[in-house]
Design a protein that fits this description.
alpha+beta, single chain
Length: about 160
């Protein structure tokens, strides 16, 4: 259980504006939807989002040898799933996400709609996936969604073909 003196929680509490962004709201909805037993029911949104913040000091101590931790893979999966849902909500189109990760912690995530690749991102250093602040989490998610929306707006015929 994290306490308020925990640096991860302190940085999250300082980012109240980030919690109100559309991407973060989508991410929180997705996290809560996965709570089939209600164990996170009493947790506030900032407590749930604390899983996605990794302070720089801790990030440097995480080894990058061996398979990525299952918790990291879950965070990565939920983050990019939220990106896909946010793209769908913004564009009104069905978006398919394909993610491939190897044992070394490298991979690629690809978002497509019909015949259009709307976003392609190379994944590196998966072992240390996380954001130093909640604000950076919100900014990164919003940037990915905005980039995909620009591609859809640039090629609407291909996106709807």
């Amino acid at each position: 259980m994290a306490t308020l003196s925990d640096p991860t929680v302190t940085s999250v509490l300082g980012d109240n504006k980030a919690v109100a962004t559309p991407f973060i709201k989508c991410l929180v909805r997705l996290i809560r939807a996965q709570d089939s037993y209600g164990s996170w029911k009493e947790k506030c949104d900032t407590d749930l989002l604390a899983y996605f913040t990794v302070p720089e000091e801790k990030r440097c101590t995480i080894p990058i040898i061996g398979d990525p931790d299952p918790g990291v893979l879950w965070r990565l999966d939920v983050f990019y799933r939220a990106v896909g849902i946010a793209i769908e909500e913004r564009s009104g189109l069905l978006v398919l996400r394909t993610m491939e990760i190897n044992h070394g912690g490298f991979g690629r995530v690809l978002f497509t709609t019909r015949r259009l690749v709307v976003l392609s991102k190379t994944l590196r250093d998966i072992h240390r996936f996380g954001f130093s602040t909640l604000r950076k989490l919100a900014k990164t998610g919003a940037k990915l969604v905005n980039d995909a929306a620009r591609v859809i707006e640039a090629y609407p015929d291909v996106a709807r073909a």
